[in-house]
Amino acid sequence: MGKVTLTFVFTLLFTGLISFWASALDLSRIDLSHQYDPDAPVKATYRVTESGGKITIFLLIQADSIGLWTREYLVQKGYSSEDHQNIFPTVRELFSDDQTWRGSISFTTPKSENLLILKLGGTDFNFYFDIPIKNGRDDFSPFYPSAQDQPIISSFLNTNKLDWNVTDPIHTTSYTENFDAADAPMNEMKALMPNISEDSTFFYEDSTRLQDYHFYTFRVDSTSVSSITLLKTPPYYPTFRLISELMGPMKYITTEIEFKTLTQSNRPKRTFDEFWINTYGTKFRARNAIRKYYKSVEYANEYFTSFKQGWKTDRGMIFVVYGTPLEMYRTNTTETWVYEKQEFEFLKISTLFAPIFALRKDKKYEKDWYKEVGSLRKGE
User: In the list 46, 64, 254, 346, which could disulfide-bond 259, CB 3.0-4.6 Å?
Assistant: First the structure.
């Protein structure tokens, strides 16, 4: 069983687990692909809040024998900055066991630094996690959602237990998440944000009013640009169970005619099964292929969900078809994925709801894309 400590607060001066390095990192040259690797030995996710000149970052760190991992912190202006500032955060532990550490770090908002780097040190390797601490021109929200007394770290809400750390009325705006799947990488770029209209606005009272596959913006002040966006999902998300959910990701591995047949069938479950069996030859091979493909969809949902489902994003599409990149690099405005024979660049673009990463598309990807999809359909 885990150890829950709601009031345990300690600082750098009182722990031997946290130390600091003395020089800034050129993070743009450090491979960060472990952040998208399901088999990585350590994982870290976060939510940033800001209030009264102080930044608080809620952290969830997962690893085997987590007590053996060291944590170090550094703030700097950007990914390739030469200047840095050591910080002495207040650390609050909310939960810990052998595989999980959940808690928060708090520190005074830096004047010019935009990026916090979390360095997790294992027995043989160090792993870096970049956490933006400046939200464009706007501050991060001073309030945050929680469930069962634990801050919600993810961008999706798959529980009906939702609370807030404030007593003020929460102004809520509802939108339907009916975005199309991402277009193939060789297609022309379309409008990054289609026309989105509000479904309704109301004061949040309880989560029973929140509908699955709608996304919501929450504000304490209706005139504030500082908000939190969450996608409401079924409790089993990021996995899929319904045939209607399973159909969408088929777009990436089917022809236009096949996809139309699947989505317009009067017997969708039977048509779905027939496609996989006909493609893979036997029920056994089809079952294994389905399991493998939708595991990739699940990871895409876990890593890339924002106000749209993760598999629908450009990064989600590439992940589902190509898998975890061999290498991944970030700058202040780009994210680059490197595979054995291919490289993809995503442009970071701010939106009202959350940043999006738009793939820089090119006709040069066409041949390799069809080859990769063909390999998937052969079970390779």
Answer: 254
